[in-house]
Amino acid sequence: MQLMQLLIKRLMDLVLAILLSVLTLPLFLGIAMAIRRDSPGPVFFKQTRIGRNGQPFVIWKFRTMRLGADQEWHPPRAEEFDSYQFQDAGDPRITAIGQWLRKTSLDELPQLYNVLQGSMSLVGPRPEIPEMVALYATPMHRRHRMKPGITGLAQVSGRGDLTTRETLRWDLDYVDHWNLWLDMKILWWTLEIVIRKEGAK
Question: What are the DSSP E strand ranges found in 29-153?
């Protein structure tokens, strides 16, 4: 039964990702031109993340920070892990167009390629960087049983306001109770949140 649901989930990913890619192509091109005009550097930002079964893959995003800004970030210490939050508000590394892209979540648009490629799903736990995964306790790795998603239960339950511990709790809840109906509800909630721009930083 679950195998059939996973096959339907993959089919839904492909159909929706193709449809969204076609519908957003003019927007995609407009954003690419705006990024090039806004600051020097590439249009896209690529980064290694940890996917299903703990396998690394390359995630694609529109670049929202100045060139080389990712090298200025350092992971939290082990004792800071549970309460850690990614704070983007007011970050001087973020470009002018980057602020808008993050507020509207359009910086995630290139991840439709990851979905088509099969390394991501539309819905699932957000993929984390290796440096953060290295701080996970053993039970936390259960989140890697599902493909990572562009959106997920944590993103519709607090988004940028959640601590690492809270995000992991929502991710594990999603993995433990996953079904297609939950995916459809998360997609609908994501649309509402993006329109209202809730939790974006």
Answer: 44-50, 56-62, 121-123, 149-151
Query: Taking the model in full, what pTM does it have?
Result: 0.92
Per the CB < 8 A criterion, the answer to whether 98 and 65 are in contact is yes
Contacts of residues 95-98 at CB distance under 8 Å and 24 or more positions apart, as own/partner, are 95/35, 95/38, 95/39, 95/63, 95/64, 95/65, 95/66, 96/38, 96/39, 97/31, 97/34, 97/35, 97/38, 97/39, 97/64, 98/38, 98/63, 98/64, 98/65
Residue 198 has pLDDT above 80, yes or no: no
pLDDT computed for residue 201 by the predictor: 47
**Euclidean distance between CA atoms 144 and 13, whole angstroms:** 18
What average pLDDT does the chain have? 91
Token pair for residue 62? 């529109």
- The upper half-sphere exposure of residue 25, i.e. CA atoms within 13 Å in the direction of its Cβ, equals 5
Find how far residue 138's CA is from the centre of its chain.
Answer: 22
Query: Cα separation of 171 and 142, whole Å?
Result: 9
Considering Cα of 126, then 177, then 117, then 28, what sign does the dihedral take? negative
Residue with tokens 């809840």: 173
